[in-house]
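Fold in tokens:
===
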Amino acid sequence: MYSQAVLDELKQYILKNIPPKSEVTQIEFEGPEIAIYSKNPRVLIDFRETIKELAKLIRKRIVIRSDPSVRMEEEETKKIIHELCPEKAGVTDIKFDHNVGEVIIEAKKPGLVIGRNGTTLKEITRTVLWRPSVVRTPPLQSRMIDGIRDVLQKGSMERKKILKNIGARIHRPLYLKEERGYWIRLCSFGGAREVGRSCFLIQTPESNVLMDCGVNVGNSNNFYPKLDLPEFNIEDLDAVIVSHAHLDHHGFIPFLYKYGFRGPVYTTKATRNLMTLLQIDYLDISEREGKVSPYSQKDIKKMVLHTIPLEYQEVTDIAPDVRLTLHNAGHILGSAIVHLHINDGMYNLAYTGDFKFAKTRLLEPATCSFPRIETLILESTYGGPSDSQPSRREAERQLVEKINFTVKRGGKVLIPVLAVGRAQELIITLEEFMQRRILTEVPVYIDGMISEATAIHTTHPEYLSHDLKDMIFHQGHNPFLSEAFKIVDGSTIRPEIVKGEPCVILATSGMLNGGPSVEYFRMLAQNEKNTLIFVSYQVEGTLGRRIQKGYREIPLKDEDGKVRPVKVNMKIFTNEGFSGHSSRQQLIEYLRKMHPKPERILTVHGEESKCIALASALHKVSRVETRAPFNLEAVRLK
């Protein structure tokens, strides 16, 4: 294999530039990294700066691992870790991955395991000769995270083979070494002039990279991305990048594994955990509704084993001529703006996915500064001329007013929410206003995947806003743990909630296209004392959009499975201020603040009129080329 020749050349260079005393036993590809196995890794640890310089010279990420023969026994390793870590660190579990020589340390306070400037972690490494990986013990236990860790633990041998194969593909030699004749193009398989099934293919003479691969939650006729185009060949696909964990951006990825894809998925760790949760939930809902699913849990498991999590700002090779960096998108936990550095910097593009260019209670605003950028692919959900959002303060005032009014007249408030993002934003908001006695204290019922998604949020506080982290870690107050919230455990108690005292109900799905929110709506809709509050975008074709448009009679299945018309007498209110998307003004402001300025802007992820309107407005602001591409269209970037 050509990649073996590349590896052999790298081995020779590395061995020439590291101390002979390190006793290197193996050098191999592990995904985008090069792993050096050593019988005397303490030498390499001491020469850490040399290794860093070496990584810069060969332009590859290097990881140091100990040879299996020198690693300390498991029980002794556990004992040493407990001795070296302060008791306040709260170490709750220690596990081992023999295939890559890692010891996974789960702790309530990971920072104390790491130590000041990493001193404790370095001491652990030097003493036990296992490579420590520190993870947070979540305040709320997540079955999904436990399940993912179990899959990775049991499949560690398979995953090592996967990473080796991925590494060989990434580090293959370039086919076209000269700049002359080099080209780059973008193909839209979904998400152009529509909201849903986002899927964009970047092609060069060397590689094929897919950015998102989602489903259309609002349109069953165009549910899947158009992967039957001549441009797409699953055998040529080098990598998939997931911007964030909403189904319209990742819901079709397991299908790729069902039909033979064996390449990597790159995303943040939070997105990996959340998207796995939502894909499994999607299968459960499909089964309950008697729909045929395009893939199975087995395919989701394959995806998990092939997923390579990245941190924000971490530069990673994903193909011979493509480097990837993820930046905060401010949309939901772990959401990322995708930056691609193509052909050694010849061309750079940024794909925003869904993003929020404003600080929220949950997250910091999206990044607007990049090293270089020629093309910006920009979402247009709220890109229409009349699309405006109230300030967050005004949105919160309206929310409190509607809830208090409804509760006072003995009604119930139903808020359909996406399990990820809006639900957690509302939990924080409702908890604060109850604490301040501004919001009438009533039970807040949490139904659907919200509680599990919230548990995942508590596992990844590194992605949360500075204010929220300060509240949790320095003020000792975690709003996610408030006793005001009641988890609904099973569908049998929903009728009791509807018949009971005034309350607030947060239930999935946010567009009323499935999940418990539809059942609550059916039971609450006819009572004029009740209120329905929309806080997220309602895609065309969903039940939520029809209600938003003013439909006053909706055909729905009852408990017996028979379809009957339901009269809508409850109050309907839309509160755009909690949206995780940027308003039109924020989209324009983002371009003004962006550094450096792009040479081309492509508007996607919006209804056709909004993509076109935003492209026109941005052209007037920036005087650069702007376009609203169609699905199935290929745009030459270079």
Remarks:
- The chain has four domains: 2-69, 71-137, 181-386+581-636, 392-578.
- The domain at 392-578 is CATH 3.40.50.10890 (Rossmann fold).
